[in-house]
Amino acid sequence: MTVQLDVIGLVVADPAASLDFYTRLGVRFGNDFGGHWEAELPGGFRLTLDTEETIRSFHPAWRGGSGRMNLAFRCPDPAAVDTWYDELTAAGHHGELKPFDAFWGQRYAVLHDPDGNGVDLYAPLS
What we know:
Blueprint: E1 4-12, H1 15-24, E2 36-40, E3 46-51, H2 52-58, E4 69-74, H3 78-90, E5 95-101, E6 106-112, E7 118-124
Parallel strand pairs: 1-3, 4-7
Antiparallel strand pairs: 1-4, 2-3, 5-6, 6-7
């Protein structure tokens, strides 16, 4: 069972300023999905921008600080999200959000790497 680095996600305080900044660098974002924007990048990656409010909508305890950038790994299926989360937390890594079925249609979990950076695990539910 493998996971694939798929998304570099940024939490932004001023979405208009961030959209302007990255658009000037040639990044083309899709529509606003209620405080969430996605752009396809070369090499198959995606860059996402989320407002602080969007993050708090599913993680009410989130307070920002150093956790403003996340890497997201796509898992092959929803069960793999749970398996990887369990394996990494059993190895002593911090689990921030246990796996859950998110309202946007994914099995989703959040961990921290050894330096405190956010690492998301996800898989489409359908």
